[in-house]
Amino acid sequence: MPDPPSDPERLESRHLIALNCDLDLSREAVCLLGAGAEPWWRDEARATKAEARRLGVRRGELAIARSTLGWAAELAERERERARRCDATIVTRLDASYPAIFRELALPPPVLYVRGSWPRRPCLSIVGARHATAYGREVAELFAAYLAGCGLAVVSGFARGIDTAAHRAAARAAEGVTVAVMGCGLDVDYPRGRRGLRDEICRRGALVSEFPCGAEPLPRNFPIRNRLIAALGHGTLVVEATARSGSLITARLALELGRDVYAVPGRIWDDKSIGPNSLIRDGAFLVQHPREILESLPLAVRDRLPAAGEPAAPPAPALPPEQQGVLDRLPPGEPLGVDELARAAGLPVDRLSCLLLELELAGRVRRHPGPAYSRGSRG
Questions:
Q1: d(CA 142, CA 49)
Q2: Fewer CB near the terminus (10 Å): N or C of the chain?
C-alpha cells in the first residue's frame, strides 16, 4: 500500500530511512533526495529527464525513489528492528538529536546509525595509513591519549593502523572519549577481530555510520565516510599517509569546511611520509607535540573542554637494571630485531627473550613480526 507523507510538502523520518536503505540508489542520490528541497515525491509529478536533472540525480534513480516511498512504513520498521538488534539508534535529519555540524555539508546524510553516546565535547580527527609503521602507531597513540586526556573527543575511521591506534589510546585515557565513523553497516564485522574495540569505543563514545544495516565495506564507501570524519573534528591530524591515501581526502575535505589540518613530519625517503610532508609543504600545521594542537584551537573551543590543563601521566615504575638496559637500547618508534638487540645489550638470546617477555607484559615494549621489538605505550 502506498505510504505518502501526511504533509505533502515534506518528507518524514520513515521516508528518509526507506530511501537510505535502498541499495539501488547511489549515496549522492540518497543525500540529494533526502534533503527534501523540492516535493519530488508527489503523485502527480513525473520522473522526467528535466526534473531529474534539476534535482541532480539520474532519471532511473528518481523513479526508484518514488517507488521506495510507497513502502516506506514497512521498510523503515524493518530497518529499525535490524538497528535494535545491534544496539544502534537511528537518527534522521528531522530529529533534534541530529548533529548540527553535519548540516554544513554539501551532502548531509539524511540518516545516521549511532551505537553508544554522541559526544558532547569538541572533537579532533586523527587519520593515517592502514599499514602504519611502529613509529606511526606510537605517534598516533601519543597524540590521541594526550588530546583525549585534555577533554577532546578523538574521531577516526576504525580502519587498521593509525585509526585503531588512535581509538585504543583515546578509549584508555582517563575520561577519554572516541568516535568511530564506519564505512559499512554497524552490524557488519569489519575489520574482523575488532569486536572488543567496538565495545570499548561504545562505552567511551560512539560508533557512527550513514550506511544501512548489512551494507558491506565497499571501497567507494570510505571516501564518502571521510567527509563525516572531517566535519566532526575542529581539526584533522594526519600521521602517516601515502601519496594516494584516503587520509589526504579527509584533509582536503577538512580544508573545504574551514577546519585546520595538522601533519606529523616523516623521513623524506619513506613512502608513508609523502602525504604528511606534502600537506606541510602546502600549508598544513607541522606538529611535533599534541600540545601544539591544543594551543592552536580557538579559545571558544578550549573553554568547552571538560578537562583543564594538560593530562598528568603517571610515572612509569622503575625497572630492574637489566630490563632498563634492554629498554634503553630500543630507539623510540623503531623496531629492532632480537639478534640485533641481543648484540646491543650484550645478552644471550635466551636471557633477552625472558626480559622482553617481562617488558611486554608490563606494556614497556611491543612485539612485531620477525620477531622484533619497539618501545610500548609506557616505554
A1: 54
A2: N
Is 263 in contact with 238 (CB distance < 8 Å)? yes
Alpha-carbon distance of 92 to 85, in angstroms, equals 19
The strand pair at 285-286 and 260-263 is best described as parallel
Contacts of 228 (CB under 8 A, 6+ apart): 102, 109, 181, 208, 210
Sorted by where each starts, the structural domains of the chain and their CATH numbers stand as: 13-114 (no CATH), 117-302 (3.40.50.450), 321-375 (1.10.10.10)
Cell numbers that stand for 361 in this block = 607484559
Three-state DSSP class for residue 130 = coil
Q: What does the pLDDT look like over 134-189, one tens digit per residue?
A: 889 989 999 999 999 999 999 999 999 999 999 999 999 989 999 999 999 999 99
Q: What is the spatial distance between Cα 225 and Cα 79, in angstroms, rounded to a whole number?
A: 20
pLDDT at 235 over 80: yes
- Cell numbers given for 153: 573527543
Using only C-alpha atoms, what is the Rg of the chain? Answer: 24
Give the pLDDT score at 123: 98
| Runs of H (alpha helix) within the chain | 13-20, 27-34, 49-55, 59-69, 72-85, 134-149, 162-172, 195-204, 221-232, 246-256, 274-281, 290-296, 299-302, 321-328, 338-345, 349-361
Query: What SS3 class is residue 321?
Result: helix
Residue 364 CA to residue 75 CA, distance in Å, equals 52
- pTM of model > 0.70: yes
